[in-house]
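Notebook entry, cofactor series.
This is the third protein in the set we're modelling with a bound small molecule. For this one the ligand is flavin-adenine dinucleotide. I'm keeping the input format identical across the series so the outputs can be compared line by line later. Sequence and SMILES below, as received.
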Amino acid sequence: MTIYGNSANEHSFRNDITNQTVNNPPNVKIEIPKEGTKLKANSSVRYRVVVTDKEDGSTEFGEILPNEVVLELTCWPSKKAATDYKNLTKDIAKEPTGLTVIKHAGCFNCHNDKARLTGPSFEDIAIRYKNDPTAIHTLAKNVITGSTGIWGDVQMPSNPELSKIEVIQAVEYILKQGNNQRSRIYNGYEGVIWPIKQAIDDNPCVYVLTTSYTDKGKGGVSGTELRAQHSILLN
Amino acid sequence: MDQRRRDFIRTTALAGTGTSLLGSTAIHNMAGSSIPSTRSASKSVIIAGGGIGGLCCAYELMQLGHDVIVLEASGRHGGHVFTGRDGLADDLYVDYGAEHFTKPGYDKCWEYIEQFNLTALPYPRRVNVARRIDGKFYTEEMLADPSVLKKFGFNQREVKYLSENPWWDLGSLYYQPYLDKFTNEYQPFNVGYDDWDTIPMADILEKDGASSAALNFLGGKNTSALFTLWQAGILNLRGVPLSPPDVYRIKGGNQGLTNAFAKRLGTRLKLNCPISGIRHGQSGVTVSYREFGEEKEMSADYLANCIPLPVFRRIAVEPALTEDKQFVIDNLTYGTYARVVFQAASEFWLDDNLSINMQLDHPDIWSMWRVAEEVDTERVALMGTGPAGISPQRALAGFKEVYPGKSLTIEQALVKDWPNDSFAPTCERLAFPMGTLTKFWPQLMQPQGRIHFAGSYADNLGWGMEAATRSANRVAKEIDQA
Ligand SMILES: Cc1cc2nc3c(=O)[nH]c(=O)nc-3n(C[C@H](O)[C@H](O)[C@H](O)COP(=O)(O)OP(=O)(O)OC[C@H]3O[C@@H](n4cnc5c(N)ncnc54)[C@H](O)[C@@H]3O)c2cc1C
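Returned structure with ligand:
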């Protein structure tokens, strides 16, 4: 609940950020499932991620918001391809900017990557605007002003605090991710993952499940954020 | 009194068969090792979610002599029934979620109100509503004035209807001729409109001569005609108008009702116990949950899921549910919005000669009315609804922008942004997408093995407290008779 005149986020920084002189990297770990767990057709598997960060706090104590934690499940045709991807992405220092915007602006409250929530899924959006080169701008405009009647009678609230650039990055991410049939984004540090159906039919997937957390940086200063990730292979 | 005596007799009778209600023998706290009881007399039931649906279901099962445990994820019970006092002065209070009920239309809720000795107050939030349309406020009299109605573009028939009936009842003009065919409120099919699930309601309205003003007002471009008429038919069967003007609330806040259930459940209700996994089989169910950060398991004969489906999706179920059931779980959608609350130093609208019951047609704040007027203070608590993610400041700015007077004395603004609530992000179930009614109904209510489904989403009208208590009673009966 937000109280007028006291807009400080209840869950925000644990420490007095103005006095912060160093920023320690976060620690992230997929606790469940264990490496090598099998994803059976049509069944979900639980996941649980633990994040600790010296400055931001810990998921165990609710100091890090669920929306800050993102997981990606990708499907690969072989163990080698999966391992290569895992190694290749190990040291990525920055998440896609569009994803950062989406996490912080609360878009995940209403949108999922491949599943319908209050709003259409990233996949639905990507399919609908696949052949429309001007889509990015119309979509960005609709995100800023809010919209209704395009997908149904429910209203998407306006996002006047986001800049045009941020929204374009978010929309670009949505269209790209929505189109990626071999990847699925989940968010929240607890939940379930599902096997990727599309791929199972041609060729059994070897999965890489990756979770990451980007911290709030030194004293909240943009550009000083540190990111950590943890990946495991699943069958 | 009568009630208590009956409970007492039941408890002793059960004690005679060697089952105690508390410290249940049938619900085991040990990891995976339990064999659920298979006695037909007393069953052990885990209730997932302690909103009004879960609390009511547990209470009813307990009344029937079964062993129940409610596992609620958050540190409070009640879910979307949530009365708040924090941040308000002088004992003022507001309902952040469910705020009103009707009569008729809430038969189950009224039964409990009586049973628990709660006081229901008339709640005049829908009388003398001032409606802002195209930037201008209209009183109810103005909206019954044929010359005003003509200017909006209503046709002759609509003008006549609206000059004799309230503004919000326009739908009845078009729906009513179709409603007689619905005779069983749980049966939308085989009454003659099966083909209309793929036809938008707007098309039917157009065919029946609705003006474009009426089409604009009634919407329905994206909603199936069968679904719309069925929902109107249910209200019709219950004798409830489309938007009943006489509504009620519980004195002290609607949470009085969920508190009353919780009090009777005592330690059978466990808070701060989020469920993360469910295993089910022919003989019972086992749930994994966390208590104070510690992973635990609990087994029982049955599970009553009273968690809204979009949140239930985050729980792993093993073995998987059938494809038909999973479709419902994956595709049921909800609307989400925010409750906006203002506190004012006085009844400022009286100085401006206005009604505080307002439909504002502003993107940041949709409506406004008063609550808790019986509290002994000059100050007033106002409630409204706005879009998800709205800040208190922005909602207040929106209200200031359109409020048609100059005496505002608002001194505090609060917002409860439901989609941001970790465990209760949903608000109300939305219409099923066009052409999918056979997939959702009656599957939505049907059990899967030993897992049963209750909560406000699991009834014919997916509306609020009545749907939650109705479905809770249905599931209590299903499990009792299983
Ligand atoms: C703003 C607003 C206005 C409304 N106005 C009205 C109104 O005027 N009249 C009316 O009748 N209705 C109204 N409603 C609707 C009404 O509040 C709901 O339909 C009803 O309260 C839902 O009850 P429920 O028990 O089905 O679900 P919920 O209240 O959502 O309860 C589900 C419970 O499950 C818990 N839970 C979630 N995940 C887990 C987990 N993993 N493990 C354990 N527990 C979990 C949640 O914390 C929650 O307590 C309104 C709702 C909103 C949001």
